[in-house]
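BUG: 3D viewer hangs when loading the predicted structure for this chain

Environment: internal workstation, default settings.
Expected: structure renders.
Actual: progress bar stalls at 90%.

Input used:
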Amino acid sequence: MSGIRTYVQTDMRVAPTEGNHLVRLRDMVEYVLGVTKLSVRVISTSPFAGTYDSTEKTLTQTTPAELIIDGVTLDAGDRVLIAGQVDLTQNGVYVVTMLGVDGTTAAVLTRADDFNESSDLVNGAIYPIDEGDVNAGTRWKLTVGTIPAVLDATNLEFNKQVTELKQVVEMVFDITGDDAETAYPIEHNLGTLNVTHEIYDSVTHETVIAQFTRTSINDVRIDLGVPLGVGNDLVLILRAEIEP
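Structure tokens produced before the viewer hung:
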């Protein structure tokens, strides 16, 4: 038995984040319907210490300081997702309209143009996060407390959408006939019972049906029932998803 080849495939449950990524039909539909919103630079998941003005739709920093969220020093015009307010009605997408200066100038965040009307509060909307020490590349889903939602009156909660990248590993084994053996133990060392298989004739490439047993997380066994003749070689393909 010999031969092994491996390739990595991005789980298509994960939304595209780069221009050259594959796009799922669901992502296209969500974008058209407005479910997937414009991204923000960072997300604040803990309370932002500030005073909210419902008339101006602003959050003004309580203690004047440089504005740093999730390890990122923000610039004027940056979009920020505020998601950790004790008063859930204050959560939402803001734009930095005044930079903070330590001890002298309080930073000001103003609700973004796409999050300053009740009609902007779309239950289930997804907000991608661009940067941050902790939350870069994550996506957060909006859940509104009442429908229809009313800005500054309805509770707004954002929850991280859990997605996983998996490495799809494909291993190829040659099974050589000797006119005697009927059972072939295979060691793959993938560390999982969740493996799938395919067996085919190496000459005709026709699929071969055989008993397939997962004997351990690192081993399987192929039982043919009758001896495999000399020259009647088979190819076994094992596939599994593992952590990258």
